[in-house]
Amino acid sequence: MPELPEVEVVKKSLNKTIYHLTLKNIEIRNKFLRFKINTKLMKKMVGSKVISINRRSKYILIKFNNNYTILVHLGMTGKFIIFDSKNIKRNSSFYYKLADHKLNHDHLIFKFNKKIKLVYNDIRKFGFLKVEKTKKLNLNSHLKKLGPEPLSKNFSFHYFKKKIIQRKLSIKDLLMDQKFVAGLGNIYVNEAIFKSKINPIMQVNNLNDKKISSLIRNIKKILNKAIKEGGSSIKDFNNIEGKEGNFQQFFNVYGRNGMHCTRAKCKGIVNKIKISNRSTFFCSICQK
Predict the structure, then answer these.
(1) Which domain holds residue 10?
(2) Catalytic annotation on 278?
(3) Which pLDDT band, with edges at 50, 70 and 90, does 86 fall under?
């Protein structure tokens, strides 16, 4: 599943292609995704112009000038495919190469002016698209309980310290909780905990101030680096320009089970355990 950096890359790619374009037509080939598409509301978007494309957590928000917003979640295999004015196909997907595009999994086709088409393709259909009134977005069930963005000033030492008082759960589970911080996923949580020299099973009430500060700093640093590198191509993540994410080249611990620790002078071996059914990778020597 795409995490915050990958969704951010898709958002930026869409900004380059459909921002300020007018939606001329929508073809709904299959309305039965994770949530049934409201055909009447979706058709209401025709004739409107895209005025902004934003990301909140792992969601993409495509705002139109008719006071409605399309809320998108890519699920496991959802992807956007762009057909430009020359009918050249460009990918904005996670896990799949452009060559793997199967037409029978094209569920929605958005046709814009300037001969631009945006296709939503999803093999497993765990993703979804919902039309919401823009002024009521904050009340949306998917968004209203989300914690602060990890790259924002609101995700701070004081916020962290206040939220962990009297809580008894592992640091790994805390960071995976979208109500605590929005958008973090398994890959980047593993990497941030490693960088901060914290054992992922450590109880949050045992974290000292130094560890908290280190963790916040490393989360922001790793996410910014991942966005800059275009995300992680665990299988294949390509943005609309066809470039693959490169951050997997910088993994220090994720997916390195049984390999030597990457930290200088550490002779530890990376272990793999399960925490809340999520694969967790850590070095038992330098992550105390």
Answers:
(1) 4-139
(2) yes
(3) confident
